[in-house]
Amino acid sequence: MTDFNWSKLLKWSSNYIDESDSSRRIKQIDPEKLEFLQGAVREAMKGVVDPNKLLSEAKLKLESDKAEEEVILSALAVIDRCVDLPDCSLNLDKLGLIQPLLNCLSKSEEIRNLTYQILSKSMQNNPPVQTAFGNRGALTIITEAVHLEISELMQSRGISAISSLIRHNPDMEREFVIEDGLLQIEKWMRSEFIKVREKSMSLLRHFIHQGVISSRDVLEINNGRIIDAILDLQRKNCESIEESQNIQYNETLSETLFQVVNICKDHMKNDCKEKILLQVNRRANFLSNYMKICPQDDFSPEHDMLIKCKELLKADM
């Protein structure tokens, strides 16, 4: 056993249990209070020589049939700190923490929130850990959890965890694509939340840059639905003042369209090219008029990207 003061953490986290709720669910903890908890963990760990022993203790608390939510939250806060330390992430599988962490995605929102964070940090650019989670069905489990989330924060954090699971791991990336990954990205792109759309487009561009997807994936297997989703978002941007003024989001959207067109242009039918050109011209004209009215808003990078997209399409028509 370590000298870590679990009781102190449990006392802190119990202050955020809703006693009026028979299920004793954890209240939503704002970022400031969560940062305080994480700071308390760092302070308590100063005397801990072997963080792997602490991870083993945290595992026992997660696996306990009698563990209440404040116990789980405290254990997760400890794990979250441990995975910041060298080699601790690599030991998650050896210490038997993969399944207990995935099980946390079926618990309260606050627990899921911290779990997504742990998953993202531990798996990012870490092939052995990605593979260990993948072997436990993490891709399906996390994807299903994201599907059940209703808030922008939780959906975007869940997608970040999926991204950390598969990015730069060729086997995991291909598995995602084979398991209707483009269809999943398309669904995220049609989300009501901008952050969710941005994360989905980031993942799509990553696949393009890494050569994970081809024109066949987009035009045949996905039947061009990804392209339709991007065009629908551009149409919406021409109608929504709020989204029209989001310069970074619109640049991301147009860059994503350009990247998709770039890998598909040689295999696109003319009617598909014409459909894209119609919307690209509409968006470019909208931006030209908008910049005349609001010259302080610099949409020139997006406008330039649209022009490049037009040139790609017209070159092969």
TrEMBL record:
Positions in coiled-coil regions: none
GO terms of molecular function: adenyl-nucleotide exchange factor activity
SUPFAM superfamilies per the UniProt record, alphabetical: ARM repeat
InterPro entries: ARM-like (IPR011989), ARM-type_fold (IPR016024), Hsp70_NEF-Inhibitors (IPR050693)
Superkingdom of the source species: Eukaryota
A GO cellular component entry from the record: endoplasmic reticulum
Taxonomy of the source species: Eukaryota, Sar, Alveolata, Apicomplexa, Conoidasida
Species for this entry: Cryptosporidium xiaoi
Name of the molecule in the record: Nucleotide exchange factor Fes1 domain-containing protein
